[in-house]
C-alpha cells in the first residue's frame, strides 16, 4: 500500500472491486456526501453484485471502505463508461482519493472492455466534481464537452438542478498507469 499524504491526514489507500458486503458502506458514504442523490440501500447491494466490474472501492489500511465510484458501460455505446456516482468519506475528501478511484476504475474497465470515453453528469453547482472530471481529462489527454442532459424540469421534485453531461475522450494513456487491485496514491 502507498501512503496518500495531505495536510490533514496520512492514509494508506488501495482500490478493489466491491463485494456485496460493501453495499451498506457505499450507501453510508453516499448518504454522508451531502451532494449525491441517495439511492435505496438495496440498490447499493445490487450494484455491488451486478456491476462489480465497473465499480471501485477505496479502502483504508484496515480494509474499510472510505470511497467508491460506480459506473456502467452504456448499452448503446459499449466503449463508454458512464460514471454513476463517486463519493469519498468526509475525513478523506481533498486528499486525492476521488481522482485515484476514477483513474483506477477507468484503467480497469479499459483493460477488460476497451473503453475510449468516460461520461458523467454534474450539476452546475458541484464545483468539486467539475474539477475532478476536468483534471481526469487532462491526466488522460482527453477533451471535455458539456451539454445539458436532463433539465431541472425533467425531475419530479422542484429544485433539482439540471444534470450536465460531461463527455471525456478519446482517452489517452494516463501519466502513471494505475492497477485497480494494487495500492495507489
What does this structure look like?
- This protein has 185 residues and is of the alpha+beta class.
- Helix content is 28%, strand content 32%.
- The chain has helices at residues 23-33, 41-50, 97-113, 127-139; strands at 2-5, 10-16, 55-59, 65-74, 77-88, 117-122, 143-150, 163-169.
- The chain has an eight-stranded mixed β-sheet with strand order 1-2-3-4-5-6-8-7.
- α1 packs across α2 and α3 crosses α4 (127-139).
- The radius of gyration is 16 Å and the shape is globular.
Compact summary:
With 185 residues, the protein is α+β, with helices and mostly antiparallel strands. The protein is built from four helices and eight strands, in the order ββααβββαβαββ.
Major β-sheet profile: 8 strands, mixed
How many angstroms separate the termini?
8 Å
Query: Strand order of the main beta sheet, please?
Result: 1-2-3-4-5-6-8-7
> Uncertain regions: pLDDT < 50 for 5+ in a row?
1-9, 175-185
By secondary-structure content and strand pairing, the structural class works out as alpha+beta
Count all strands and give the number: 8
What string gives the helices and strands in order? EEHHEEEHEHEE
Helix content: 25-40%
Shape: globular
What average pLDDT do the residues reach? 88
How are the SSEs ordered, and which strands pair?
Elements: E1 2-5, E2 10-16, H1 23-33, H2 41-50, E3 55-59, E4 65-74, E5 77-88, H3 97-113, E6 117-122, H4 127-139, E7 143-150, E8 163-169
Parallel strand pairs: 5-6
Antiparallel strand pairs: 1-2, 2-3, 3-4, 4-5, 6-8, 7-8
Helix pairs in contact: 1-2, 3-4
Question: What are the salient characteristics of this protein?
Answer:
alpha+beta, disordered N terminus, disordered C terminus, eight-stranded mixed β-sheet, 185 residues
Amino acid at each position: 500500500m502507498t501512503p496518500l499524504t495531505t495536510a490533514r491526514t496520512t492514509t494508506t489507500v488501495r482500490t478493489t472491486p466491491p463485494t456485496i458486503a460493501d453495499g451498506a458502506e457505499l450507501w453510508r458514504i453516499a448518504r454522508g456526501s451531502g451532494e449525491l442523490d441517495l439511492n435505496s440501500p438495496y440498490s447499493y447491494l445490487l450494484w455491488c453484485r451486478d456491476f462489480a466490474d465497473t465499480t471501485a472501492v477505496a479502502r483504508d489500511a484496515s480494509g474499510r471502505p472510505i470511497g467508491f465510484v460506480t459506473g456502467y458501460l452504456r448499452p448503446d455505446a459499449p466503449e463508454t463508461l458512464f460514471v454513476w456516482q463517486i463519493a469519498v468519506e468526509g475525513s478523506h475528501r481533498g486528499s486525492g482519493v476521488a481522482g485515484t478511484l476514477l483513474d483506477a476504475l477507468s484503467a480497469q474497465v479499459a483493460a477488460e472492455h476497451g473503453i475510449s470515453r468516460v461520461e458523467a453528469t454534474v450539476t452546475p453547482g458541484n464545483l468539486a466534481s467539475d474539477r475532478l472530471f476536468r483534471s481526469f481529462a487532462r491526466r488522460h489527454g482527453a477533451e471535455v464537452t458539456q451539454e445539458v442532459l436532463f433539465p431541472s424540469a425533467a425531475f419530479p421534485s422542484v429544485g433539482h438542478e439540471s444534470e450536465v453531461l460531461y463527455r471525456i475522450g478519446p482517452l489517452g494513456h494516463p501519466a502513471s498507469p494505475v492497477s485497480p487491485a494494487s495500492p495507489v496514491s
